[in-house]
Amino acid sequence: MNRDEPAGRMTEPGAASGAPAPVFILVGPQMGENIGACARVMGNFAISQLRLAAPRDGWPNPAAQAMAAGSPVLDNAQVFDDFEAAVADCHTLYATTARPRGMVKPVLTARQAMARARSELEAGMRVGVLFGAEKSGLPNAAVTRASAIVTLPVDPDFASLNLAMACGVMAHEWRAGDPAPDMFEPLADRAGAAEMEGLYAHLQDELERAGFFYPPEKTPLMMQNLINGFARGGLTSQEVRTLRGVIKALTLGRGKARIVRED
């Protein structure tokens, strides 16, 4: 395989999400397991382009395949002999590092960097995010080429982050502003005002029968507190029906435990 060519058919950036996405570039990655884990989390967040600059153990790597869990990102990974070749077509580079480098550069959070990257991609630029090797991080030469440094608010006494974890944080921030998947949309059958009023009346009636309101003059305030709690919950119609069933079961019983009440 030509090392400057993709290991499989290359998809366009952001093809999975319908929009351009940054290129993740691993500089001198060491363990195949970490490369595969990076590909896996990139696939989760629809970042399709992974580049490997001089991977220590060569390529392809069976350990990477196992950890990728079938992510198509790994099949399309591009491998380069050196850092310069891996970034040659990038207009902007962001260097991830936890160590101050003594360089005069903007220092951004992951969210700030990905917001800026989105604007640059929309303007037709190719954006690369640099990740260093597991043992030593990015070399200074790579950080020098970057337009900005990206760092995370980690504990300075334990700032070392696993390579795949770092990729995961950046990938998440890339998609952080997107809506939740449709399958998690709130239920559409939220209970209406009439259903809620029926629940409140049912509850108050049974609580009065049980002597809950004491002294009686505090009934409005106590009901107000109860209603406030239910109103905040945003109950569905089914939940209201279930609660009324609970009230009925508690007051009248069910089956052999059911009692007969004159009214």
Short description:
With 263 residues, this protein is an alpha/beta fold. The protein is built from ten helices and seven strands.
What do you see in this structure?
By secondary structure, the chain is α/β, with parallel strands linked by helices. It is about 40% helix and about 10% strand. The chain is built from ten helices and seven strands. The protein has helices spanning about 30-45, 60-70, 70-75, 85, 110-120, 140-145, 165-175, 195-210, 220-235, 235-250, and strands at about 25, 50-55, 80, 90-95, 105-110, 125-130, 150. Strands 3-2-1-6-4-7-5 form a seven-stranded parallel β-sheet. Strand 1, helix 1 (about 30-45) and strand 2 (about 50-55) form a beta-alpha-beta unit. The longest helix is centred in the C-terminal third of the chain and has 17 residues, at about 195-210. The protein starts with about 20 loop residues before the first strand and ends in an 11-residue tail after the last helix.
Strand order of the largest sheet: 3-2-1-6-4-7-5
Tally the helices. 10
Average pLDDT score? 88
Helix/sheet category: alpha/beta
Q: Assembly type of the shown chains? A: single chain
Helix content: 40-55%
Overall shape: it is elongated
Report the C-alpha radius of gyration, rounded. Answer: 29 Å
Low-confidence stretches: 4-17
Order of helices and strands: EHEHHEHEEHEHEHHHH
Distance between the termini: 85 Å
The fraction of residues in strands falls at: 5-15%
Number of strands: 7
Q: Biggest sheet: strands, sense, closure?
A: 7 strands, parallel
